[in-house]
Specification:
- Chains A, B: Pfam families: Fe_dep_repr_C (PF02742), Fe_dep_repress (PF01325), FeoA (PF04023).
- Chains A, B: This is Transcriptional regulator MntR.
- Chains A, B: It comes from Algoriphagus boseongensis.
- The structure is a homodimer of 220-residue chains.
- With 220 residues, chain A is of the alpha+beta class.
- Among the domains of chain A are: 60 residues, Winged helix-like DNA-binding domain superfamily/Winged helix DNA-binding domain (Arc Repressor Mutant, subunit A, Orthogonal Bundle); 76 residues, Ferrous iron transport protein A (FeoA) (SH3 type barrels).
- Chain A is 41% helix and 18% strand.
- Chain A contains 8 helices and 8 strands, in the order H-H-H-E-E-H-H-H-E-E-H-E-E-E-H-E.
- Chain A has a 6-stranded antiparallel beta sheet. A two-stranded antiparallel sheet of chain A has the order 1-2.
- The mean pLDDT of chain A is 92.
- Chains A and B meet through helix 5 and helix 6 of A and helix 5 and helix 6 of B.
- Chain A binds a DNA duplex (30 and 30 nucleotides) through helix 3.
Chain lengths: 220, 220
DNA sequence: TTTGAGAATTAGGTTGGTCTAAAAATAATT
DNA sequence: AATTATTTTTAGACCAACCTAATTCTCAAA
């Protein structure tokens, strides 16, 4: 069965918002993610329900079906492969690729994606460090390391904290670190293991080894 | 101004059918090229006229405007660059690329095309030997050679004949050669300059030097 | 347990691109 | 020149994807 471009986009948004089918998603959430109105979303949910890529009960919510997940992962795979292409081969900066990849992800040609994958040397992660699903939709999630174990000049993204006490989160917030931030290790002090990192290519933060060991990074 | 995908496709078809604005094109021709019905074409011609990419007078015909030519050449440029990419980088066969390039040509991103062009080393011809317009729409047409001047194993495409008498054209038709045919030189006889060529990868033809000298080829 | 507030859905309309069937314009033939 | 044939355009409909406005549903608070 063929999905339209709009259907692919909705399905991808639903997949992301529901965190792969785990969380529930509201019509309003989808509308704001897709920059459309809730009325349009209801309409589309009915259609997606008819195509059985979601299970949809009016007013109650929805659930992505296995079929739906496969479609979503396929689109995500294409998006991320194209991002790798743009950055690795065409020298795009990592923040310039999204729009173009949004268009390229809808090109229909299994052969193209197969060849592109080979041409790029079967990358497992996109330029943002997000994993690229394989052709069956399987995702290898990247191992996470503690920030204090990283070396100078390595880069990555904050994905979780080990100490999730309010005090610690407040501290992170205060210094400008947050889940999802992209970081780069600028310096490490051998003496006490304290570390200096660059957040989002603009803000520099110093922190003790103790703090750093509570921050989990996926490297990129 | 932005053209829709359908508008780009119609404009490209009109450009090709009119041979770059030289010949006149009928509604029926466009319909059969686009695999739509004449009624749909009339509708679209009105829209293209309003956007001033063609000059359209009902029942009388149409003329591509300079603006229209620029759009058409831009689309053709993108199509052919993508074809080079598919063949040179992703190892597609030359007859597998068209469908995919039809999709890729509609991706909107001037930066992408600029970078792709550089990545491919500013190719001047696509895998079919057709010239790639530059970003201003200028086309460098490939120098044409007489078939008898080609060497063994060289390939190319028949683009014109020097003797266009009915007798000669009838002869060409009879042996299975035609304008547009892809050919490869299989053998040349030193003694009398006669030549053996392979047409469209299937048919072998022998011809005298005299005949060959009246056939013009662009090499690829 | 009734009642609002807010979320979600339906009703009805618009636009782009297509279609069929009918009408109009042009071209061809007697 | 008149009639017929062909091409082209218009009229009216449909589908996908969106919209606004009105309605319906749910859920929490009074």
């Amino acid at each position: 069965m063929e999905l339209t471009v709009a259907e692919e986009n909705y399905l991808k948004a639903i997949y992301h918002l529901s965190d792969g089918g785990k969380k529930s998603v509201s019509t309003n959430d989808i509308a704001s993610e897709m920059k459309t109105k809730p009325a349009s979303v209801s309409d589309m949910l009915r259609k997606l329900g008819e195509k059985e890529v979601i299970e949809y009960r009016k007013y109650y919510g929805l659930q992505i079906t296995d079929s739906g997940k496969r479609y979503a992962l396929q689109t995500i795979r294409k998006h991320r492969l194209w991002e790798v292409f743009l950055v690795d081969k065409l020298n795009f900066a990592w923040d310039e690729v999204h729009e173009v990849a949004e268009q390229l992800e809808h090109i229909q040609s299994p052969l193209l994606i197969q060849r592109l994958d080979a041409f790029l040397n079967y990358p497992k992660f996109d330029p943002h460090g997000d994993p690229i699903p394989d052709e069956f939709g399987d995702v290898r999630s990247r191992p996470r390391v503690q920030l204090n174990e990283m070396e100078i000049n390595q880069t990555g993204q904050i994905v979780a904290v080990e100490d999730s006490s309010a005090a610690f989160l407040r501290y992170l917030d205060k210094v400008g670190a947050y889940i999802g931030a992209r970081i780069k290790v600028l310096d490490k002090v051998e003496f006490d293991g304290s570390i200096e990192i660059l957040v989002d290519q603009k803000k520099t933060i110093f922190m003790s080894k103790d703090v750093a060991s509570n921050i989990l990074i996926i490297q990129s």
